[in-house]
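A reminder before we start the practical. When you read a complex entry, don't treat the lines as separate problems. The point of joint prediction is that each chain is placed relative to the others, so the output describes one connected object in space. Small molecules and nucleic acid strands, if listed, are placed in the same frame. In the example below there are two entries. Take a minute to note the order of the lines before looking further.
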Amino acid sequence: MKHKINFILNNEEITHEVAANRTLLDVIREDFDLTGAKEGCGAGECGACTILVDRKPINACLMLAVEADGKEILTIEGLSVNNKLDQIQQAFIDHAALQCGYCTPGMIMSGKALLMDNPSPTEEEVKEAISGNLCRCTGYKKIVEAIMEVADKTNSAR
Amino acid sequence: MKFVGESVNRVDGIKKVTGSLKYVDDLKMSRMLYAAVKRSEYPHAKLLKVDITKAEKLPGVKAVITGKDVPNRVGLYLEDKTFLANDKVRYRGEAIAAVAAETHEIAQEAIKLIEVEYEELPAVTNALEGIKSDAPLVHPDLGDYKWGPIFFPEPGTNISNLYKIRKGDIDKGFAEAEHVVENQFFVPHIQHSPIENHSVIAQMDPEEALTIWSSCQSPFAVQKALSVAFGLPQNKIRVISPAVGGGFGGKAGTTLEGIVIPLAMRVKGRPVKLTYGREDEFINSFVRQGMHATIKTGINSDGKIVAVKNTFVWDGGAYTEYGVNIVRAGGYSSTGPYDIPNVWTDSVCVYTNHPVGGPYRGFGMSEIHFAIEQNMDILAEMLGITPIEVRRINGLRPGGSNATGQIVEVCGLQDCLEDVVDKLGWEREEKKPSSKPNIYIGRGISCGFKAPSMPNNVASSAIIRINEDGTCQLLVSAQDIGQGSDTTLTQIASEVLTIPPDKITIKTGDTDYTPYEWQTVASRITYCAGNAVVKACQDAKDQLFELAQIKLGVPKEKLILADEYIVAKGNENKKVPIKELALGLSMEDGSGIHGPIIGRGSFIPPDVKNTDKTTGQGEKPTAFWTYGCQGAEIEVDIETGKIKVKKVASSFDVGKIINPKLIEGQVEGGILQGLGSAILEELILENGIVKNPNFVDYKIPTADDMPEMIISFVENPEETGPFGARGVAEPCMVPTAPAIANALYDALGIRVNSLPITAEKVLKAIKEKQ
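Here is the predicted structure of the whole assembly.
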């Protein structure tokens, strides 16, 4: 049986029918072809599927699509507005905070969620915020530096 | 130099930070079918019956195949595997049958309907047992298999390769040594754990041409293996590797392609996709082999090692088509980066009923160095000298000789050692005890080296095309698996042609359109593909100069490239922009000559030769060696046994840094991967069954585990490298685990001889010491 749900996906209002057992990750990837969020483990252990639901980072592989009803969803594809990279995306490039790129969308969304909630995090807070996002390539250092740079810029702009 | 040596941003940055890069599992095709695999429930069993009739009848199922459909044995170095099991299974999880269906769910359902009857056989679950003469045979038909001439299987046993080093006179060496000690170490299986699981799509069109989209490191190696396996000509097999979400060796060679292709051949025109789940990734993709090491060392009181006898017994798993070469590398590198006159090594690859061992970042070096480098510290303590001193005394220097008897010409090992010692200040400052009574501080050092472990004559090629506006397309089949080769190869092309990186587009990994590359493995791409790119660009440059000399009336030899122009040396006003000649030279009478500039470059590492079959001795067994050193500072909590790695300093002799920002990140990643293997990671095997195939029970490092990292480099140029560069991707993880193990000894006087050094092992060792 399918359920009709309404939600905002990357600033667009959506009405969609989904089966009750489908995950939100499956729906955004398969039905909307938003494939930035990846399935690395399907069990909420790697963070590659991290997206924002009502500004909070969640593992989309663990959330049922029907639970998205009435929620606001932001994926990596919705982060650049008018084709301009978000500061955090630019910072990842500038710091070489990515290698194979597979964890990158999830990592950026976790970083973005932190900065939305806490624009001036400490390095420890950054590490904590991304501790649910596994990266096998970078050793994390440049990722932490990239997120800290956005925080520092925001702070000095005040 | 203008572009080489600069921290250019990654050329693949934007598509990766926007999530727009499509990896294989992100690809959707019309009328695509989904595959699922029936897997063995036993580590070792005869297949009495594989009944697919019920599965075939399930609505939505389009094809079901078994081992009978893929009878040809394949393998990179030793042809010992079929893509699906025939007659018997050799590890728990081995593919027995596969299904293609309209949906993933139907495919899964069909798998459950496949009936398999087994007759369980006694399993080999320990390499040391497997090597015994009365052990059950994993491959009774080994004698009928084909293998490369540099490998030495022993039919009638479980030994798939026995690689020997016999240097000097080992008996005399021990007889003359003032001290002789023997130590043993064990390294367990671990998993690459790329964040992207393996994924492949295959489609066969009606004219029998096959297209494969695979998350693979080596499109051409895959093409060749599939050609052999399925009897298809290579021009009918197109392998595309659109993006690789982390490889670390796990996506080298062929993996799951061979399961999907026979399905695709049954359903012509329809693409078939198979993506591994994380559990599959842990069990059914390559794992790093386990290894038992015994090292007997003869050393004199002045600290000079005079003899070493190594036995490395590798747990190769059920198929060692690739693993035999890891064992060979472990053999010819068996002294570590030390100059030892008398060496005896047996490096033995043993078939077991474990998951399939294969290439893993380091290719045997991390495993042997865990043993060698702890052994060095044990020797130093015995003689009352420092760990740094024993390495200064025995570490290779230019003119020294390694395990193969090769006289090494370029060797920055001692520079790296001094660099790390200096950065950590250990000889200037005494260790300060922790202010907390339960925390002990330790400092440990480790050297390391690695050569690209590849056949001597592996080939690379590159093509560069110049467009009318002066921009370029650079075509290679070196794959950017995260290491940054798209960027560094672009920089190399920029340097030769004086055309900036943002005007060069690099395209990779499509066997129909990009030129041959053996494999993206062995830390060989900067060196091998880099050389091919240099040659392609020089070829283009040569063509440009041929035309420019006519245009400018200046002989070729007097022309140079400068800022996208061909310029007369000494007369800078005489010049022509590269773009003007991109399609050939237009003459004053309106005619034209030559046509488009297309540079081509081919490369094989020069003069690399086989070693002697019985002694392993040779003049130049590898293209180059990369040397380095790391030091680790750790805190150990004696109440919990937990190790916290606080600081790691790293120095490697890379010849020439192509991109400082990227190489730094690569080493940082290597350190964390080494750290994971040191204190966290083990594929737990019980009676051939993997007990922890998920990230809850198999932890890899997170941001919390990150130590302070001090990364530096030494640049003694590699004579045959592009701009002097050599590889560092794998070497940089080699010393990390032994440095941490040595730091533990420094902290508490306990030595844990097996990886990973878990809190439980530390507590047990503390207790035993008391």
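Discuss with your neighbour: The mean pLDDT of chain B is 97. What might explain this?
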